[in-house]
Specification:
The chain is an all-alpha fold and 125 residues long. The protein has one domain. Helix content is 75%, strand content 0%. It contains four helices and no strands. Helix 2 runs antiparallel to helix 3. The longest helix is centred in the middle third of the chain and has 44 residues.
Length: 125
């Protein structure tokens, strides 16, 4: 049996009535949170896979250095290593941003519905 107060105002609805009134909002929130949690899972999975691959690269570096025959080769090996590392981290950051951007657009469509920006937002840019 739903709890009701002595007042009949809209703020004093019982739990069942609140559920009925807010069903649409709750469904939208559940969808948003579901997408958000799914994206967080994907980001975490990508991060683990990324770090595993980067650690393999890091652990392979001493072998590469040991195989060098001249100081110039050591420098080249480090330059290739650093270049690949920067590229890998950059690509990973883009993958994460794509995932986060996608869930933001899905979860908050009113922020991406083609409406003109308000003056405060446009001035901040």
């Amino acid at each position: 049996m739903p709890h009701k107060s002595s007042s009949d105002g809209p703020v004093d609805l019982g739990f069942d009535e609140m559920i009925k009134v807010n069903t649409h909002n709750m469904e939208a929130l559940a969808k948003s949170c579901g997408s958000l949690f799914e994206t967080v899972g994907k980001v975490n999975e990508q991060a683990v896979n990324f770090y595993v691959e980067r650690w393999k690269e890091d652990l392979d570096m001493p072998t590469r250095i040991a195989q060098c025959q001249a100081p110039e080769e050591v420098g080249e090996a480090y330059a290739r290593f650093m270049s690949k590392m920067v590229n890998d981290y950059s690509e990973q950051a883009h993958r994460v941003m794509d995932l986060v951007s996608g869930v933001a657009k899905e979860s908050f469509p009113m922020a991406h519905n083609g409406q003109p920006e308000d003056s405060a937002t446009s001035q901040a840019k």
